[in-house]
Structure formats: structure tokens, C-alpha cells
């Protein structure tokens, strides 16, 4: 392992330091005297490292990482599009970056205007009446959406009876997780032979115990639901609400509005459709857009307009409450608005058209080398199957690992669950024809290698900093804590304790 | 591919074996091939009662997580504690040491309605047609 790849605390030592600071020119007083009664540590093990070593450490880590600024990233369902740098520039302007959430409405009119304008544009794009920008991610948006649905049923006196949420078997895993989180029960509905909603199965599952259906449109195979108007009509006929998982909104912007398709609410993954960074775990944003009848239940506070002034309205007695500190992740919201305004109406609909064109181009080209379970024109993504490679002793996982050798991030694999050995590919609109052709050529070469020399695939990757990892062992023998090198004995004990607690409620 | 004839099967790829009036339950070799390496099995507490076709636990593999469905209605009288420290048993011996729970059946007639190995093989063939 290179020096740089050790943790900072494993590098340097006493005397290694960054810039020298001037001597303290005020009297030094012990912390215990300043913070009486506080429980203070007696020792703090901070790394002691010189500035050049710190810089090298982080630069080294940054080049190990694969990211959209470094290479193609066709991760299906994740919409890994380019993040325009102008959005970062705008979000870094002092008026935005240094805005303080406690500054008060009068001193924050610009920030309120950003949240208000983003809410209005998202409502217009999705065909809904109102938007909350508080949720920090798509999954939290789902949970907040379901909380609003529950509040709506309760307000109508049907809260006790309606406990089930229908979810198709092609759904994202977050859907049943969100359902569980709000105390509802998931009922899985089998897809039809074309992998879209089966109206017979849906009718059979819909009754007066159903609170909502949750659907992704286009679905997770990248297919548009031809019966979508009937689906939402049936849901409403049964007294249920129709929730749209907005993960695949990148196929619809400027072309179709979920509100017009009969949905009651949806979340919007701004890090997908509206190009904000898929940061290393955040901060993110998953605004939720709702039809007028759900507006009273939006989280507090809500921005309201009074003449040319904007104010936070906290007096919302039917609200589901607050779901994030202050007003959501503001810097991300500013980036999303910048993206929408720089594209404008015609630009945004070109985004979706180009995303669909790119996906269909790759799909038509790759169907010669891989199985394509559903041959309908796709929307912004498509799903191949690696099942035809099994006779060569090769799995989809091997294809994914081999792609890394070509400097490409692997597509989403083994999802959706209804396609065997699935490879889910979403190129997005921001890739050039050149880049798509390079990816297609790599995929074609891998299919050829699977036939002629499968061992290349089974041993892949070979050009990455680490070769094939033992994922099963990593999951079976959990090591979740860093420990001081040389103190391995205590690690074994800690690991055994972790095993007892993890996964066991 | 042959599936053992001394157990019965569900459409959800569980098997059930009747011994001394108790039903031992696990997942089939087809299921383990589809799942890949099993890394965690979440099993119910002894004494818990399940209805047929309702989830009784969860199996977690590297690439996916799946519910486990009770082949018949009954009460859990034993769970395979070995799986908490060695989930790989499910891959290595799906019909033996990789068993998951033992049920006291509510009605043994339910057992006779489960698929035979022939039915199960036919089901898999149809799914791959």
C-alpha cells in the first residue's frame, strides 16, 4: 500500500505540523475552568501530519475515486448526468453560501425567492399545485409523501381502515422501506408479461384497505406505462392515492407531467433530473410536489407571497410537521434552480428527448451482443440480461467488473429483480456519441471475451487499484470500526459484539 | 437438474421436509444459485406463529435481499442458530445443515398440497421457457 493510502492517523507523528500560527496573545486558561461541569476528555488523538502530506493524502484518494467528472457512469436509475460547474459558481456566491437560517425573513428575501421560485418551477414541470423543499433525499421524500397521504386519509376518517400500499415487483427498494417506516404494510403487485402494470392484478389488489399505490414512471425497466391513466383512475376509484416515485423524471421533463397523468403527489430527486451533485452521501434534496387537496398537509414552514414580500408561514394546523432542520439543504436547492433557469423550457424538454435518444441508441446496438428481455422502445434507460453468458460460466457480475478495466463505471446490476442477471443502463443526455460508442465497443468486446476467454472476465478487474473484492466475506465478517494498528485483539472482540447487534432489532 | 424427492416445494423456492410430525424449512438450491453468496439470515423467535405464504424471515445475499415465506401454517419450534455465525451453510448444504426453521404444523393436510420435486422442476422449466 502506498504511503498516501494509509489513514492520516497512521501517518506522521509528534512534531509534524501545518502552518505555524502566531503565539497566543491572550492569557491561556484551562478548558475545565471555562466549561465548568462539562465532561471533558483528558486526551485527544488527532493526526499530526505536515501540510504536503495532507494534500497528497486527499489528492490520492480523489484519483482513486470514479466520478462523473472522470469518466462515463451509466448507472441505471441513478441519472449520473454532468453537474454543470456554473451551478457551483452560483451557489458559492456569498449572498447564497453565507445566508444564515436565523437571519429572519426581511434579511433573507433573496434566499426565500430561490426556494419560492424553485418550488413554483418544480410545480409547473410536474403539474402539481405546491412543493416542499425540505426532504433531504428521494427516500425521505417518499416517507414525507406517505405521511401526507396518511394525514389525508385520517382527515377523511379513513385512517384506521387504509393500511396497505401497493408496490409493483419492479419497484425501487426504497418504496417498501418507506411504507414500513410510516407504519403501513406493503403489498407487492406482480407485473404483466410486458413488465408494466398488470391491470387485472392491480384491480384484484385494490380495495378499501389500500391507502396508496406507489409507481415509478417510466418504470424501472425504462418502459413507459401505456395504461397509466387507467392505473391512476382505478386507484382513485378505490379511494387510494397515487404516488409517483420521481426517480425516472429525467425521461418526462417537458414531455409529460405526472400531475396530468392522474398522480396525487411525487418526490423529485434533484441530484438526478436537475443535475445537483450526487455527493458522497449528501447533502441532497428530495422535494415533494403535491396536488391541491394535499397542500394543507405539507411540512412547516411554507414560503408564502405577500405582495412583493416572501415570508415563512408556520401557522399550518394540518401540516405533518417539520421534516428537516430549517428549510432543507439550501445550497443544493440553489443549484437545482440554476440548472432549471439556464436550460429554460425548451432546453429542459431537449434534455429528456436526448436522454431517450441516447438510451435507445445504446439499446439497439447492444441487443446484438446481450439478451434484451423487453424490446419495446425504451425511455431514458434500458435493461439487458446477462443470462445468455451463463453457458460460458460468466455472470452479469463479471461483466460489470470487467467494465471497470475500460475506465467505465459499471451499470446497475441485479436490479430490477424481475429480470434475471439484469444490467440496467442509463447513459443520460450529457454524453457525446463518441463516448457512447466507446462504451458500446467495450460491452461488445466483453461479450466476445465471455465466449472466447471467460477467465478474463472472471478475474476482472485487473487495472484498478484493488482487484476483485470478496464481497461475501466483507458482508459476513463485518469490520465497521477503525482500530489502532497493532491492537487487533480488541478488534476481534468488537467484531464479535457487532455481529450480535447488527440486523437484530 | 434434479431436486430431492424427500422434500416438498413452494413457488417461492422454499422446501419443507416432514419428520416426526414437524416440518423443517429451508430454501432450494435453485434459490441459492439465484441469490449468490448468502451473508445473513434473519429468523423468527421460537414460539412465533405464521400463516402459510406469509414472510417468516429474510435472507440477505451480496446482491439482493429476499423475504422467506412459510410453506404451511404453524408455530416455530426451532431455528437454525448456526446460520447466525455461518450463513454460508445455506449455500453449501441448502437441504441439510443450511435448514432455517422447524414448524409444528397447524394442519398437516397443507403439507400435502405443496409441490412435489416433479412439479417444482416443471415450474422452473416454465419460468425459463
Automatic annotation (TrEMBL), chain A:
Function per UniProt: The glycine cleavage system catalyzes the degradation of glycine. The P protein binds the alpha-amino group of glycine through its pyridoxal phosphate cofactor; CO(2) is released and the remaining methylamine moiety is then transferred to the lipoamide cofactor of the H protein.
Keywords: Oxidoreductase, Pyridoxal phosphate
Keyword Oxidoreductase: yes
Entry-linked InterPro entries: GDC-P_C (IPR049316), GDC-P_N (IPR049315), GDC_P (IPR020581), PyrdxlP-dep_Trfase (IPR015424), PyrdxlP-dep_Trfase_major (IPR015421), PyrdxlP-dep_Trfase_small (IPR015422)
One cellular component (GO) term of this entry: cytosol
One MF annotation (Gene Ontology) recorded for this entry: glycine dehydrogenase (decarboxylating) activity
Organism: Eiseniibacteriota bacterium
Cofactor(s) this protein cannot do without: pyridoxal 5'-phosphate
Coiled coil: none
Domain Glycine dehydrogenase C-terminal, first and last residues per copy: 352-452
Record-annotated Glycine cleavage system P-protein N-terminal domain positions: 47-303
Top EC category: oxidoreductase
NCBIfam families: PRK04366.1
EC identifiers of the protein: 1.4.4.2
Top-level lineage group: Bacteria
Catalytic activity: N(6)-[(R)-lipoyl]-L-lysyl-[glycine-cleavage complex H protein] + glycine + H(+) = N(6)-[(R)-S(8)-aminomethyldihydrolipoyl]-L-lysyl-[glycine-cleavage complex H protein] + CO2
UniProt name for this protein: glycine dehydrogenase (aminomethyl-transferring)
GO biological process, one term: glycine decarboxylation via glycine cleavage system
Residue stretches spanning the membrane: none
Automatic annotation (TrEMBL), chain B:
Cofactor note: Binds 1 lipoyl cofactor covalently.
Cofactor: (R)-lipoate
GO cellular component, one term: cytosol
A Pfam family: GCV_H
Residue numbers bearing the N6-lipoyllysine modification: 63
InterPro entries per record: 2-oxoA_DH_lipoyl-BS, Biotin_lipoyl, GCV_H, GCV_H/Fam206, GCV_H_sub, Single_hybrid_motif
Key words of the record: Lipoyl
Alphabetical GO biological process terms: glycine decarboxylation via glycine cleavage system; protein lipoylation
Domain Lipoyl-binding stretches: 22-104
Superkingdom of the organism of origin: Bacteria
PROSITE patterns for the chain: BIOTINYL_LIPOYL, LIPOYL
Cited function: The glycine cleavage system catalyzes the degradation of glycine. The H protein shuttles the methylamine group of glycine from the P protein to the T protein.
NCBIfam families per UniProt: gcvH (TIGR00527), PRK01202.1 (NF002270)
Assembly with partners or alone: The glycine cleavage system is composed of four proteins: P, T, L and H.
Sequence similarity: Belongs to the GcvH family.
Protein name per the record: Glycine cleavage system H protein
Species for this entry: Eiseniibacteriota bacterium
Biological classification of the source: Bacteria, Candidatus Eiseniibacteriota
Gene: gcvH
Amino acid at each position: 500500500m502506498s504511503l498516501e493510502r494509509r489513514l492520516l492517523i497512521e501517518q506522521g507523528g509528534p512534531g509534524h505540523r501545518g502552518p505555524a500560527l502566531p503565539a497566543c496573545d491572550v492569557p491561556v486558561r484551562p478548558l475545565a475552568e471555562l466549561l465548568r461541569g462539562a465532561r471533558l476528555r483528558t486526551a485527544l488523538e488527532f493526526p499530526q501530519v505536515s501540510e504536503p502530506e495532507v494534500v497528497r493524502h486527499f489528492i490520492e484518494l480523489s484519483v482513486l475515486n470514479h466520478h462523473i467528472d472522470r469518466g462515463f457512469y451509466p448507472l441505471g436509475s441513478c441519472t449520473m448526468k454532468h453537474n454543470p460547474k456554473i451551478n457551483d459558481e452560483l451557489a458559492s456566491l456569498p449572498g447564497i453560501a453565507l445566508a444564515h437560517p436565523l437571519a429572519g425573513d426581511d434579511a433573507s428575501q433573496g434566499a426565500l425567492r430561490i426556494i419560492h421560485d424553485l418550488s413554483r418551477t418544480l410545480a409547473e414541470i410536474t403539474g402539481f399545485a405546491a412543493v416542499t423543499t425540505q426532504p433531504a433525499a428521494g427516500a425521505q421524500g417518499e416517507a414525507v409523501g406517505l405521511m401526507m397521504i396518511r394525514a389525508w386519509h385520517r382527515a377523511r376518517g379513513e385512517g384506521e381502515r387504509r393500511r396497505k400500499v401497493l408496490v409493483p415487483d419492479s419497484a425501487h427498494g426504497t418504496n417498501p422501506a418507506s411504507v414500513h417506516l410510516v407504519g403501513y404494510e406493503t403489498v407487492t403487485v406482480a407485473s404483466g408479461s410486458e413488465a408494466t402494470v398488470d391491470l387485472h392484478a392491480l384491480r384484484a389488489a385494490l380495495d378499501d384497505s389500500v391507502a396508496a399505490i406507489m409507481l415509478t414512471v417510466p418504470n424501472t425497466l425504462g418502459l413507459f406505462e401505456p395504461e397509466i391513466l387507467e392505473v391512476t383512475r382505478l386507484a382513485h376509484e378505490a379511494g387510494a392515492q397515487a404516488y409517483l416515485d420521481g426517480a425516472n423524471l429525467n425521461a418526462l421533463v417537458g414531455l409529460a407531467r405526472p400531475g396530468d397523468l392522474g398522480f396525487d403527489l411525487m418526490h423529485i430527486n434533484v441530484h438526478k433530473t436537475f443535475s445537483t451533485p450526487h455527493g458522497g452521501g449528501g447533502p441532497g434534496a428530495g422535494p415533494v410536489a403535491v396536488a391541491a387537496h394535499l397542500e394543507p398537509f405539507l411540512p412547516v414552514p411554507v414560503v408564502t407571497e405577500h405582495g412583493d414580500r416572501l415570508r415563512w408561514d408556520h401557522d399550518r394546523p394540518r401540516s405533518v410537521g417539520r421534516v428537516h432542520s430549517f428549510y432543507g439543504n439550501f445550497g443544493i436547492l440553489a443549484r437545482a434552480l440554476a440548472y432549471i433557469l439556464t436550460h429554460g423550457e425548451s432546453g429542459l424538454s431537449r434534455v429528456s428527448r436526448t436522454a431517450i435518444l441516447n438510451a435507445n441508441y445504446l439499446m439497439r446496438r447492444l441487443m446484438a451482443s446481450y439478451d434484451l428481455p423487453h424490446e419495446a422502445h425504451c425511455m431514458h434507460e434500458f435493461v439487458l440480461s446477462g443470462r445468455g453468458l451463463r453457458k460460458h460460466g460468466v455472470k452479469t457480475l463479471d461483466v460489470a467488473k470487467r467494465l471497470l478495466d475500460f475506465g467505465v463505471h459499471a451499470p446497475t446490476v441485479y436490479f430490477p429483480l424481475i429480470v434475471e442477471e439484469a444490467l440496467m443502463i442509463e447513459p443520460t443526455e450529457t454524453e457525446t456519441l463518441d463516448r457512447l460508442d466507446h462504451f458500446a465497443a467495450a460491452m461488445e468486446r466483453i461479450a466476445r471475451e465471455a465466449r472466447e476467454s471467460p477467465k478474463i472476465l472472471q478475474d476482472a478487474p485487473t487495472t484498478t487499484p484493488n482487484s476483485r473484492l470478496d464481497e461475501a466475506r466483507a458482508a459476513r465478517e463485518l469490520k465497521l470500526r477503525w482500530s489502532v494498528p497493532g491492537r487487533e485483539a480488541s478488534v476481534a472482540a468488537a467484531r464479535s459484539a457487532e455481529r450480535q447487534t447488527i440486523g437484530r432489532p | 437438474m434434479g431436486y430431492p424427492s424427500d422434500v416438498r416445494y413452494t413457488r417461492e423456492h422454499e422446501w419443507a421436509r416432514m419428520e416426526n410430525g414437524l416440518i423443517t424449512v429451508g430454501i432450494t438450491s435453485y434459490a441459492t444459485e439465484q441469490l449468490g453468496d448468502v451473508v445473513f439470515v434473519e429468523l423468527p423467535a421460537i414460539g412465533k406463529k405464521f400463516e402459510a405464504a406469509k414472510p417468516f424471515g429474510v435472507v440477505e445475499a451480496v446482491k439482493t435481499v429476499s423475504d422467506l415465506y412459510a410453506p404451511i401454517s404453524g408455530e416455530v419450534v426451532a431455528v437454525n442458530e448456526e446460520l447466525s455465525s455461518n450463513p454460508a451453510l445455506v449455500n453449501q448444504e441448502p437441504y441439510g445443515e443450511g435448514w432455517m426453521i422447524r414448524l409444528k404444523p397447524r394442519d398437516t393436510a397443507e403439507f400435502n398440497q405443496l409441490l412435489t420435486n416433479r412439479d417444482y422442476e416443471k415450474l422452473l422449466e416454465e419460468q425459463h421457457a
